Amino acid sequence: MVLKPCVVETTIKVDSSKFAIEEEGNHKIEDLDDDDDDIIKAPEWDVDSFDGLEYYSSPEAQLSSDEQPLLDEEEALDNYRIVKRQLIESKGFYVEPGRRLIYLFKGIKPMSLDRNAIGAITFREYWEEMVHICLRKHNQDKVRKVELVEVVRGNYRGGARAKSYITFMAREKPNGTLVEYQAKCMDTLDGKSHPILCRPAPKPKT
User: Would 125 be classed as within a structural domain?
Assistant: First the structure.
């Protein structure tokens, strides 16, 4: 594994309007959004919008008159409920691999690391930069020297205040053990990327 040096900036400029994110026909079941009305306002650091959020049964999808019902609506809704529970319990960082998503909870969707995000830049490369931003803020606050080893997976929600939920392996310099970490960041329409949180991944519940 190749260790990645941490960049200097806490906020970088990224033209999120150029993101080549296709929704592939997915619909969204509307849930309360946690974003501020000011679409270019920087998010508060180390505040998790999933804190205190609990799973509840979602209403049936409301299709407009020009939309055709899905061939297997019940399966689609069952998948939505399962993924919604997974996202709430993991605070946005985990969706079971391979699950077919028709409806999205809060627009959050897993992305392949090799999929293009901006032009020829893949999500792996894009998320590495986002992790560096979050780690720098984390290291400043915690007086630590944690460094990125590799990005493992990530979820993405597009829009005016696009969010990334990134799981990665890290270690504390110089010879720390490998630890799974989570980083959350946001892109705003003014072209800036902001750190939201960075922390060791919680241990799975037994």
Answer: yes
- Return the minimum-mean-pLDDT range out of 25-34, 143-152, 176-185: 25-34
pLDDT > 70: percent of the chain: 74
Sole residue written with tokens 């959004």: 33
The span from the CA of 79 to the CA of 82, in Å, is: 5
At 12 the three-state DSSP class reads strand
Q: Which amino acid does the sequence have at 148?
A: L
Asked if 197 and 46 count as a contact pair (C-beta separation under 8 A), the reply is: yes
In a domain, 2, yes or no: no
Instruction: Report how many domains make up the chain.
Output: 1
**Residue 19 has what DSSP assignment?**
B
What is the domain-level CATH number for residue 190? 3.10.450.10
Residue in the block written with tokens 């919008």: 49
For residue 3, pLDDT beyond 50: no
Q: Distances in Å between the alpha carbon of 103 and those of 3, 20, 25, 58, 198?
A: 37, 20, 9, 11, 28
Q: Burial of 149 by CB count in 10 Å (0-12 exposed, 13-18 middle, 19+ buried)?
A: middle
